[in-house]
């Protein structure tokens, strides 16, 4: 009887250890590790130093003295230094007639340069990517920017791909949250790429409504990409581990809903 009891105890203990091992292995497989990131460094001839900003403001014939004063004051208090950058259409004086091609070139340069660097630096091949999430603050194109990346790098047909636009400043957080959730539900050993970028070519405001002028003072060209994984074996190579993402959506509030919108002013 004692031998039977001992055998059952050992069997139960082994089963408990097996379940614990599987649970730990599953939790480890749900981790989200940041392996690498790249930030875009625009060309120096697109830098918005003080003299360039003043020149852009002065050539806007829609502005009066009060608007000039407002813009100069807003620029001085914005906290943005002279090492920021603008789309080439703005630098070349075409902000009032920027085209879709200008927007595509702006985003393509950011996406492809950062992706080229991250693949080269990490040694991973584009065909190893399982998840691709692209977020653009305000601009949307057809075909999507995610499709442009897939076509350029010849990514796999079974890749999980998402193209987010119109999410504004929250776009990066939305993209990271999406990848974090996918890595928890998909099989382990996945690689995910997040590409996040601004697109200002066709969003540069040339009117005289002060609240709409602020976007020109606060937003600049830029972007970057992240390489993430849930592969436990790559943990030693990770820069960071994402433990938690907290998102709150206040779109049900009219005040919050209207805090950032893309519309035309009365002059069109």
Automatic annotation (TrEMBL):
Entry's Gene Ontology molecular function annotations: fatty acid elongase activity
The organism's place on the tree of life at top rank: Eukaryota
Catalysed conversion reaction: a very-long-chain acyl-CoA + malonyl-CoA + H(+) = a very-long-chain 3-oxoacyl-CoA + CO2 + CoA
Gene Ontology cellular-component terms listed: membrane
GO BP, sorted A to Z: fatty acid biosynthetic process
Positions of the FAE domain: 26-268
Family matches, as Pfam families: FAE1_CUT1_RppA (PF08392)
InterPro entries in the record: 3-ktacl-CoA_syn, FAE1_typ3_polyketide_synth, Thiolase-like
Electron transport keyword on record: no
Keyword terms: Acyltransferase, Transferase
Coiled coil: none
Name of protein: FAE domain-containing protein
Organism: Arachis hypogaea
Lineage start: Eukaryota, Viridiplantae, Streptophyta, Embryophyta, Tracheophyta
